[in-house]
Design a protein that fits this description.
Order of helices and strands of chain A: EEEEEEHEEHHHEHHEEH
Shape of chain A: globular
CATH architecture of the largest domain in chain A: Sandwich
Oligomer: homodimer
DNA sequence: CGATGATTTGACGAGCCTCAAGGTACGTGG
DNA sequence: CCACGTACCTTGAGGCTCGTCAAATCATCG
């Protein structure tokens, strides 16, 4: 896989990595830092579709479907591993095992989107936030980002609001409720989870394993 | 592809095809009729994740990830083309072009889920229903199911409500509004679209092409 | 024709959104 | 070092969208 690594890219917080509708010649794997995937409607409303964490693959959609259906931007400073798309694609096409990995990635992503859809469609505000905290935290654990129940979570409340289909104000008040219940706090870009089980219960989720992702 | 066809399966309306959490040895392609994909929470809430239409592939998730993340059931009588999973998988692995198709399918599905998430997360009730109508209708067109602006849509209002994260009652009232606005009607299992452009505008969508899907 | 399931309608209340203002932290320039 | 601007978080008040409850209408079917 290293053969197709073109280089590393360092990105400042707030910078765009990929634009909705674009067809970039590069693919990336996040190495450090976190970011956002989001779609924008014509009238400006924004849906955050997922958070980008280390080991995530970025740009697959453009590679497969021709153009990106969402934008990607950095929320913290990030380091990305850069691949050349055409090279990469030839490689994948010639190696069934790799094609399988790609499908796998896509399926995992789809699986997550289904869960997110369920969260936004069915859960109340407090359940959604508990769900998001829980998901993020479990993901962080599997990536080794958690120490003493704390992990970096360098987003704004507005980002979480846009991810969960809530207003900023209501998100803020709901975060406060979860803090008061002593389940989790989120301050200064760090998420501290005091009671994972309580979170999971409030979120109405069964404790399932975080799906492994092939690392490219 | 035909080599791996094990047979055809005829299913009555209301029957389960796949269960959430199961790991069926079969894969299907829908040939006739329509169905639902949905996830259920422990407390009974249900999120309809997508509608199954002819040419849709069913069971890919279980094939790739080990088990289904959602259930699938028939809403009308259906005819499915049945494949044996293990055979199928060997075949795909040995044929890069087919592997590509599978990846493509998965990517298209992911793309749709992103749109659905955006709809449920950002749009108001009437926008969501307009969006759903619009999506379904365009999809129907591309499948040749539409004649004189009508297409079969054999679902209950409860199904649409669960797809869009709305209550049954509010869905019903919102459907009535769209009917009053003379944009579309939905009665007796058929969707009649009177003004596609008005629907698209109400839905705040740009008119994009329906992604083609490889047929297996 | 009763029984079951889907659609429809009305009344009422709650959850969430919008508007508005104030607070805090941080960086920049005078 | 302080004034000022900016970005983000916090809090309060009021109102609208949407959910819940309830019951009526309608269709299908044994």
């Amino acid at each position: 896989m290293q053969r197709f690594k073109v280089g590393e890219m360092v990105i400042d917080a707030g910078a765009q990595i990929l634009m909705q509708g674009s067809n970039s010649p590069q693919l990336y794997t996040a190495l450090h830092g976190m970011g956002l995937r989001y779609k924008t409607l014509e009238d400006g409303r924004r849906q955050v579709v997922n958070f980008v964490m280390p080991a995530d693959f970025v740009g697959l959609q453009a590679a497969v479907m021709g153009e990106m259906a969402h934008s990607v931007e950095a929320s913290s400073n990030m380091v990305l591993c850069v691949f050349d798309r055409s090279e990469f694609w030839n490689f994948v096409k010639s190696q069934p095992a790799r094609a399988y990995d790609i499908t796998w990635l896509s399926a995992v992503e789809e699986h997550f989107m289904g869960e997110a859809l369920t969260a936004v469609g069915q859960r109340s505000a407090i359940e959604r936030i508990a769900w998001a905290y829980y998901k993020v935290f479990r993901r962080g654990e599997s990536l080794g980002l958690v120490s003493r129940s704390r992990m970096p979570f360098p987003f704004r409340q507005q980002d979480l609001a846009d991810a969960l289909g809530l207003s900023l104000v209501h998100t803020n008040k709901t975060i406060a409720k979860i803090r008061e219940r002593q389940m989790a706090t989120w301050e200064n870009g760090a998420l501290h989870v005091a009671d994972v089980d309580a979170l999971a219960k409030l979120a109405v989720t069964e404790r399932e394993d975080v799906p492994k992702r092939p690392f490219l």
